[in-house]
Amino acid sequence: MRNRMIAGNWKMNKSYSEGVVLAQGLARELEGGTGDVDVVVCPPTVDLKGVATVIEQESAPFSLGAQNAYFEESGAYTGETAPSMLTDIGATYCIIGHSERRGYFGETDEDINKKAKALMAHGIVPISCCGESLEVREAGKHVEFVVDQIRKDTEGLVIDDPSKYVVAYEPIWAIGTGKTATADDAQEVCGAIRKTLAEVFGQEVADGIRVLYGGSAKPENVAGFLEKEDVDGALVGGASLKADSFAAMVKAAM
Ligand code: PGA
Q1: pTM
Q2: Buried b vs exposed e over 63-96: b needs ≥16 C-beta within 10 Å?
Q3: 122 is catalytic
Q4: List of the chain residues with pLDDT < 50
Q5: Is 213's C-beta closer than 6 angstroms to any atom of ligand 1?
């Protein structure tokens, strides 16, 4: 049995003070609880402490996630954040392998695999992103492409508790474009992801790993994705920047 998950990726939006206000607004919207839905908020690094404080003070029913981490423990890596620093600040999730990091910052599957291992060694749950470009989709190679990413990103990982590893399928052509994949498109790839996870980790583990859809997910369309067998939630960009729209998506998942 997989609990659904709604995760918000604020990307490079919201200053420290704006982040606190958004987290407070979300805490108010969700004060009745989120049922069986796991809710995660991933603000920019400089906002993490502020959001952690809101979660603690308001006993907010959501968890804190980072948007990136480095795989080394400490040292001369200017500008980077170590997994232990995230743990110390109260983050329990971390997005890795987002297409914006792969595209703009040259992250490779090997980097993403190392990041997953480093995070899991510190008890942080990776939300590991994958997804194809429009070019790959139009060539009809999207399933093959994503399956290859999954194999590389999970190589050598040890997953004892499947609730501690999350995959997000985010077709690049649907991110921030307003162009969503259909629920059937999402199911096709999320189903292939689960099948690959079963080949790598065994069926029982694969059945416990949450596979999220991301890419222009919003209150109006999230229910359609959630109806699909292998779609366990959403990774939400734009619609996570307003407390009411993000809360509406959580409620749609409850
Ligand atoms: P979007 O972003 O919801 O704004 O399309 C999703 C993501 O990139 O995680």
Answers
A1: 0.98
A2: bbbbbbbbbeeeeeeeeebbbbbbeebebebbbb
A3: no
A4: none
A5: no
